[in-house]
Every structure is written in structure tokens, then in C-alpha cells.
Write a structure and sequence with these properties.
- Helix 10 runs parallel beside helix 12.
- It is built from 13 helices and 15 strands.
- The termini are far apart.
- It is α/β, with parallel strands linked by helices and 397 residues long.
Length: 397
């Protein structure tokens, strides 16, 4: 009884430490480790850690999560792919600047019928700069299914604690005849950006606002879950960009202001890694949050940043509701923009000087089905007749 009480105390203290860490997680489990979710959520503070937990038990569920049919559903590669998918999901659900981890487990444990193959499981965690993988083969016939569930859950909890940089004293209930192999890959910033350009990770935050800064409602930016996103190439950044995001943030009455640069362009070559870094350096003196993504289209941005308010110019708004940019298909345009609406996204539209004429949202014909998505930024609150294109021309860039 004393050993059980001691183990429970260690288990609970480990989970409390996980919940006290800033790291948030999305967890994908298939084929075991089910106790880990119960343990995590039974200790107060679980909402600090768990953004989402999914159990993709069916083959189709697994295929949809990783976006392909795996060669083996229980394998190190599948665990790795699940961890990357969970990491990308965590990026979408978390606040900017909060460390996240994607956690994955796939296992083949004891069942009602004897197994021909090994009793094994594979764990993987993905953080911004690390991919960790553990392959464990259990001694066959040594434990019941329930006991294998406990052991695999202990391993999973240890993996989460390690990713959260929490000291781990948790007993793993392993046998001397169990086999365990661990490996890891570490990434520097250039490698992360290369993965982003290759479509392996969805986005990366390269600059975060200073902790002492507040929004216009007197709240800490860090407490805001909704993002206020100003997309652009920022080649170069100018005061009009900074002022536009400031005004839009004030209109939203709360939210986390972000600049977003898509490294992938719909009709131009992707940015190189040095170009990305050069663009981001412009924001350093102002201490603003800059997100690098790989999605040039707004219907895809809406998936990356659900519930966000996108801050755009009238020229961009005009293109958004022009069927010409949807291969002339009006219904396709409506379908895609309604998809943005379903994610909870809106568009705040600032006036722009287009060919000598100052255009505002009222000058654009918005389809009735989409009108609630577009909000005008009054010209009296924002008007800056300058553009990055004009600046480049004046500098012969």
C-alpha cells in the first residue's frame, strides 16, 4: 500500500509540474496509453496543458490526421507523422509565443486473442526545435492488457514531462526484458524555416512582443487567444503598416496583434531563408510579433489562424471578392470565403490609395452572403497614402 501511495504521489506531482509549465500540447493516441489522458485531466490545471486530445482508432481517422496512408499503422514513422500533425494543430490552437508540443502514440498491445507479432508501441514528440522518438518492445506474455496500458501510459506521461522540461521521477514499470530505443533530431532556425518552406510545419513565430506591453484596452497581449493578423510582404515595412495594425487592434477591443509574412507566394518564387530573416529584422526595434507561414491564400490562412481578424487594404478586399481570382467561378469564390467565415474569421478593411483614388470598403460590392465578414476601418481613424511599392521605386529597389 505504501508503494502504491508513493507512486501516486510521484505521478500527481509530475502532472502538477506539467500543468505549471508554459507548454501546451495536442495529443494523438492510437492503440494504447489511454490512462495518460485520464491522469492528465484528473489533476487540476489540465486546461493549461491540453489543447486537444484525439484517439484516431480507425484507419480512416489516422489517414485523415496524417494526410496519407501509412505503410504501417504501428511504426516509428507513423508516430513521427502523428507528432508533426499534432504539433501543427497545437500551433493553430495556442496563443503566439506559447511553447507547444505535438504528442503521438501508436501501439499494438495485448488483445483478447494471442498476437503473432511483438507487443510494442512507438512514441514521438515534436517541439519547435526537436523531434523525439521512442520505440518500446514489451516482453510478450509478461503482462495483461491492462498492465500494458499502465506501462505505455507511464512512458507517454514521461515523454510529455520531458517535452515540458519538467524533472521526471515517474517509475515506468518496465521489465529487464523490455527493449527500448530512443532517438532525437534537433533543428536550428534555418532548418525550421526549410521545413516550413517544404510544407512540413505550418508556421513559425520569429519575433514576440515584449511582455510588459499592453493592448489598447489595458490587457496583456499574452492573455489574448484571438489573433489580429496583418498579412503582407513588408518589402519594406513602413509606418503605415504599424499604424494600421494599431488602429485595427483598437477596433477589435482585444486580441493579439500579429504581422504575417507568407514565405510562399501564389505567383512569385518563394522567399529564401535569408530573405525571410531580412524581412523579420525590420520588426525587431518595435518588438512586434511576426509569423512566417507558407499559405498565400486567405482561405488557407483562415485554417491556420481560426477565429482571427485579418487586417487588409481595400485593394486586397476588392480582389478577395472578384471571381477573376477564382478562375472566374463565382460559386467557388463564395464557397471558399464562407469557409473562412465558418472558422470565425473576419476582415477589417483599411482604405488604400489606388491609382490616385482613395478607395474604402464602401466602394466595393460585397456579396450579401459575405457582408458580415467585412468591417470598414474609418478613414478618419486610418489614412496613410504610402505603399511599399512607392518606397521601393523611390529607392530604386
Amino acid at each position: 500500500m505504501a508503494d502504491m501511495n508513493s507512486s501516486f504521489t510521484i505521478l500527481r506531482s509530475t502532472i502538477e509540474a506539467i500543468h505549471s509549465s508554459p507548454t501546451q500540447a495536442v495529443i494523438y493516441l492510437a492503440g494504447g496509453a489511454s490512462h495518460a489522458l485520464g491522469w492528465l485531466t484528473s489533476v487540476p490545471g489540465a486546461s493549461n496543458t491540453v489543447l486537444e486530445a484525439v484517439v484516431p482508432y480507425s484507419r480512416m481517422s489516422m489517414i485523415q490526421l496524417i494526410g496519407k496512408v501509412p505503410n504501417q499503422f504501428v511504426s516509428p514513422r507513423t508516430a513521427q507523422n502523428l507528432a508533426i500533425a499534432a504539433y501543427n494543430r497545437a500551433l493553430r490552437l495556442s496563443r503566439p509565443g506559447v511553447p507547444v508540443v505535438g504528442v503521438a502514440f501508436t501501439g499494438s498491445l495485448a488483445t483478447t486473442m494471442p498476437k503473432l507479432g511483438d507487443h510494442r508501441f512507438h512514441l514521438s514528440t515534436r517541439t519547435s526545435d526537436q523531434l523525439w522518438i521512442s520505440d518500446v518492445t514489451l516482453s510478450k506474455g509478461l503482462r495483461t492488457r491492462e498492465e500494458e496500458e499502465v506501462v505505455s501510459s507511464q512512458h507517454l506521461l514521461k515523454a510529455i514531462a520531458t517535452a515540458c522540461k519538467v524533472p521526471v521521477l515517474l517509475p515506468l514499470g518496465s521489465s529487464e526484458t523490455d527493449l527500448s530505443v530512443e532517438s532525437e533530431e534537433l533543428y536550428d532556425e534555418d532548418e525550421e524555416l526549410a521545413q516550413l518552406l517544404a510544407g512540413q510545419i505550418d508556421f513559425k513565430i520569429l519575433q514576440v512582443i515584449k511582455e510588459e506591453e499592453y493592448d489598447f484596452a489595458g490587457k496583456h497581449y499574452q492573455n489574448e487567444e484571438r489573433k489580429i493578423v496583418l498579412p503582407g510582404s513588408f518589402n519594406p515595412l513602413h509606418n503605415g503598416h504599424l499604424k494600421l495594425l494599431e488602429v485595427a487592434s483598437g477596433m477589435c477591443g482585444g486580441g493579439y496583434p500579429c504581422f504575417e509574412i507568407s514565405a510562399v507566394n501564389a505567383d512569385k518564387p518563394p522567399l529564401t531563408i535569408p530573405q525571410i530573416k531580412e524581412r523579420v529584422q525590420q520588426f525587431e526595434k518595435d518588438g512586434k510579433t511576426v509569423i512566417i507561414s507558407n499559405q498565400p491564400f486567405f482561405y488557407k490562412k483562415a485554417e491556420l489562424f481560426p477565429g482571427s481578424a485579418f487586417v487588409i487594404g481595400a485593394d486586397t478586399a476588392s480582389r478577395l471578392v472578384n471571381p477573376k481570382y477564382y478562375d472566374g467561378n463565382y460559386n467557388r469564390m463564395i464557397e471558399l470565403l464562407l469557409g473562412c467565415k465558418k472558422t470565425g474569421c473576419t476582415f477589417l478593411v483599411g482604405g488604400r490609395n489606388v491609382d490616385g483614388v482613395f478607395e474604402v470598403l464602401d466602394d466595393i460590392e460585397i456579396p450579401n452572403a459575405l457582408k458580415g465578414m467585412f468591417i470598414q476601418i474609418p478613414a478618419k481613424r486610418f489614412r496613410v497614402d504610402i505603399s511599399s511599392t512607392q518606397i521601393r521605386r523611390s529607392l530604386n529597389m
